## 1
Amino acid sequence: MKTVLIGAGSDLGVHIDGAKFGPSQLLNDMKSTYQGEMISLIQDEKIIKSRNLSDRRKNEYEIDKFNTNLYNIEVEQIKKGLFPITIGGDHSIAVASALADSKINEEIGMIWIDAHTDYNTFETTVSGNIHGLPCAAINGYKCEELRKFHDGNIIDPRKTVIIGARSIDPWEKDNIKYSGVTVFTTDDLKEKGIKAVMDEAFKIATYRTKSVHISYDLDVIDPDIAPGVSIPEVDGINENEAMQILSELLNHIDVISSFDIVELNPLRDINRKTEQIALNILANTVQKIEKHKNIKTIEKKY
């Protein structure tokens, strides 16, 4: 199946600058080997970005505008029969990529790989960073303002699995508790084993769904190994474990319909360590999808 690489260069969802440069860096790295189409969407340089931690709705309007454009691009590419790989940017861009998949394929599950659960709302967020709200927004758990552009199904939280979480805000825990989403922590990965966790994740995400959206946040990896992220969290997984998670994902490629790689921040990277890991994830994903002939395609009347 043919892929399309979509760069979503926005860091409006976090008070730290730099994630907006991640997509262009990775797209440039792929130019010499990638034969498919590349699309680059970059936030307006004229935007005066709010970094005020007391502002619970930082850059809400600007994020909505960016994600509306990204959503329309994603929908168009999926309609063409292409497999979208979206490169962030901060994790707020996943509201557009995941819901675009949901609009076309209608009933999908989601696997969210992240050190954070991203299940805050405007009422519970401590930092006001909107990249801490996208999973809730995609699941239809409040946050209506972040998906105004979407006129299809939300992704059922009961078909959503978060993997690798180790930093959950106090009020966010209640959101998760009442939402129905399944969470596997970093400790779960180490205690149960990656294969067991991933197998269970796919059982949940594929139950009575047509396909699965994957969103892979690089901050799931320990910052000693991958320092180039905006909000690092200690005690993460190592590089081998990160690639094992990818391998387990790609073993289920026949039910995956879209893929995000997010939160590379080149301004925070050291010796391009995080960039190289992100590039390995991206290149392996492209190679697997391009070789695979049996990815589910869903017919839809327009």
Note: The two ends are 22 Å apart (CA to CA).
## 2
Amino acid sequence: MKKILNTLYVTSQGAYLNKEGETVVVSVAKEKLLQVPIHALEGIVCFGQVGCSPFLLGHCAEKGVAVTFLSENGYFLASVNGLVSGNVLLRRQQYRFADNPDISASIARNFLIGKIANCRTVIQRARRDYSERINQSEIEETAIRLSRSIDILKRNEPFSLEELRGIEGDAAHSYFATFDHLIVQQKKDFQFKGRTRRPPKDNVNCLLSFVYTLVMHDVRAALETVGLDSCVGFLHRDRPGRSSLALDMMEELRSVIADRLVLSLINRSQVNFKGFSVSETGAVMMTDEARKTILVEYQKRKQEEIMHPFLKEKIKMGLVFYIQALLMARYIRGDIDGYPVFLWK
């Protein structure tokens, strides 16, 4: 079993990372703040004005430690990786699958069943946990609509990718229409009226976008680790600069990992209105302090133990990215009959 290593998140503006022996050193204004053995890392994520020495980047590439650069607000800028691991035959088969509309639609259908089922579980969990503070009838109606979407996807009939995207769009609309009901604390400061991105227009969307970026980084790294091409997907089609397969796999994990974390941060008052500000363009941005709180809680969430529905064994949440990527690779190689999506219970 793959050991969960740590991801180093660097948020201090003006920080510089360099190699010192077999360690990564983080400095600000030439003052050493942190020194971490590189063998204890699986990735480095730099936010905003953070620099890295060429020697460190080369060493990280050699050791298989991905270095990702994001804007201060979490938008992807660039990533430095070493040679793609795995068998070239696996990637060639992945490309054949992606070029086949029927196979692509079949895999995409699995992703969407997992996504919608997990969205339904999230709202049902919230209804149970906050039974006296939540709109029960609204939640029940949404759960029924999501169940209907799952039933449609499970029909023994072919679907085109466009038809699948239509079903997914309806389910996503129902889910996000209910999302505000899942927020039971700090309602004045955290109101959700719909998904907005690039830029996010409210505090909740700002949180969602930021955590989605963290999940995307981990999914992309897992896919590359098992030898898959993260840019060639099945539901999301090829587009320059887009990690389409990572976006595909995120569909089943987004609500379980990201949405639940955002709801917990708000409902437990781990973040508040002081952690956000509005720019002149109307974009909502978070403070460095809020960002650090989220990163700490995200890492804690990855250490939680869950029962994997396919493996039938307890694993840490942070291993889900790697295991799902490994299962996808096994399916593409023909080792298993289908891709088993992650269904949270």
Note: The CA atoms of residues 183 and 263 lie 6 Å apart.
## 3
Amino acid sequence: MRRAPVVVAALLIAGCRNLEDPAPSQATRLVIHGVLDMQRDDQTVLVYRARTGLPSAVEGSAVSDDQPVGNAQVSMTNPDGFTVPADRLLTSSGDCCVPGIYQFATGPFVGMALHPGGTYTLRILTPAGEVVTGTTTIPGPAEFILDPRRIFFRQRDTLRLSWSRIPGASSYEVIIRMAFGEYRTFADTSFEMAGTALTIAGDEIFSSGEDTDVVVSAVDANYYDYYRSQSDPFAGAAPSHLSGAVGVFGSIVPIYHVPLRVR
């Protein structure tokens, strides 16, 4: 009978430990984020390990609080078979290098210029010996349309846009850049939104007195499959078209820009 308190105490201790750490930590996963943008002269690839086992960084951002992977060998091959290594970013103090961030110069006067309809291959070799590969075919060709700035009365107007189908595009991303952030969604070849529309959080998408930019981009299948899960809560887990890692290596081509002055 004297052993009972000891057993109960042991169970209580174990229970407290389980409350503090109710689930075992997940193994880290290698995550890649890279999107080729035809309107940029440099392209950024993020390489990091997600501590939760799930990707958390987004394209164009810092590598969040996950573990960036430095000293990786990152290269890209163009449709002609020409391969170039990525550049490394220097820190603000001029030291080499910012870990986890790799860049390619892709302007019109460099060897890795981007071309509509071209297929590009990304290859990454980490210091741990992991090999990651992925390919993307840039949609296009496409003509970029810049509308003149228009006055938009949010209480009475509805934004209506339409555009031509672009070869190789799996979908079209519509980005509304607001004063407090961005609203993103995907559409086919037309888009319609009332001026009084709100975000899921209840914020105004079109705010009176604010200049708002609306940009439509043709996107490849890699980009669409990965990012639609972030804009659509019912899309399920984002698939990865990469070999050796999760994440995305895709491409976008901006095709339509509509600046609005909201009243």
Note: The CA atoms of residues 142 and 167 lie 8 Å apart.
## 4
Amino acid sequence: MKVSRGSLLPALALAAVVPLALSACGGSSSGGSKGGGKVKLSLVAYSTPQAAYEKIIAAFQQTAAGKNITFSQSYGASGDQSRAVADGLPADVVEFSLAPDMQRLVDADIVAADWDTNEHKGIVTNSVVVIATRKGNPKGIKDWPDLVKPGVEVITPNPFTSGGARWNLMAAYGGTLAEGASEADANAYLADLLKNVPVQDNSARDSLQTFIGGKGDALLSYENDAIFAQQNNQALDYTVPDNTILIENPVAVTKTSTHPKEAQAFVDFLYSDTAQKLFSDNGYRPVVASDATMDFPTPSGLFDITKFGGWTTVMTKFFDPDNGIVGKIEQGLGVPTSK
């Protein structure tokens, strides 16, 4: 049985949430200057955790380790953010949607190769892929087969800019296999699904904005983004499919940081009870299990990226822009596969 969530969620323990329109932007905001003995850290992250970080940074600055630290913050599509850092965008701390965007910086000698060796394997938050619909779900969209029906418009970002889009497609692919499809049938399913996508935005947050703006019947989304929308009084429902993927979001201090001690102190804080509960308040499944403040349903058929051989295999088989399964589908639809 599918687990559905309506728009009535427990109130946030914190009063203020960053407005949706502002959080959709992939720009930067400054947190102060180096004056007065302060250190400024640059946080570069994927598009969705901005609201959480506003609260987490404020909490960190109340600690002894964070009292003299200010921040600049940049949010955008995970792949774009990773490429920007590789191309010279200064960053002390990076958080991306998925591990391949971190690997790009390992290859560029910007992040240490052992970034994933802590007890949480470098993962700071978890989520799952869900299917969001209009309030009341007027088209009765509940599971993966419903997304490829004629006349159903699905919103999901471009997988060649957005980490969230790659999670979405692997969730749909794996969910289709779990329901008895052959690999060839699952490949065909991806083609049918992408044919039903009228617009592919750069990031998950941009796709959420497109859906909220009235386009599409369903949205493939991070669970935390669907919760974020509901917390901001948006009229949508969402369903957690029985068979969906565990999303794992990596974080690291860069080797090029000019303040590595302070940057590491901030990353360490992200695993604290305080920060993990703030992530949970904002819809993320914490990696410290006892720190969830929300009641997150556990899908009966939850799987992770190792189901397909891990990200190295997946990036070649599915997301090679020229020869991957998704790359070829997107080329046939006239969708850009490189940035």
Note: The domain at 126-245+299-333 is CATH 3.40.190.10 (D-Maltodextrin-Binding Protein; domain 2).
